[in-house]
Amino acid sequence: MQWIDQNVKTDISKVGYYVKLKLHKLCRKICSKMSLGISFLFLFFFFFFFFALHYLVCKYLD
């Protein structure tokens, strides 16, 4: 009985390890895509802010 319990435990730990590995890979994939998206958003906001500032400065200088 002890031997069967030990086998079940090792099988469960193997499955847990496999699931953890898959989740980790998925997380890394999602995080890399998210960081890419965040950098694009940051660039977009930076350009938007720059053009808005440029527009306001030009408007007040004219």
Account of the protein in words:
Keywords: Membrane, Transmembrane, Transmembrane helix. The chain crosses the membrane at residues 34-57. The chain is mainly α and 62 residues long. The chain has one domain. 97% of the residues lie in helices and 0% in strands. The protein contains one helix and no strands. The termini are far apart. The model has no long low-confidence stretch (mean pLDDT 78).
Proportion of residues in extended strands: under 5%
pLDDT < 50 runs, ≥5 residues: none
Supply Rg.
26 Å
Structural class given helices, strands, pairing?
Answer: mainly alpha
Distance between the termini: 89 Å
Q: State the helicity in percent bands.
A: over 70%
User: Secondary-structure element sequence?
Assistant: H
Global shape = rod-shaped
Oligomeric description of these chains: single chain
Count of folded domains? 1
The biggest sheet amounts to:
none
Keywords: Membrane, Transmembrane, Transmembrane helix
Transmembrane segments: 34-57
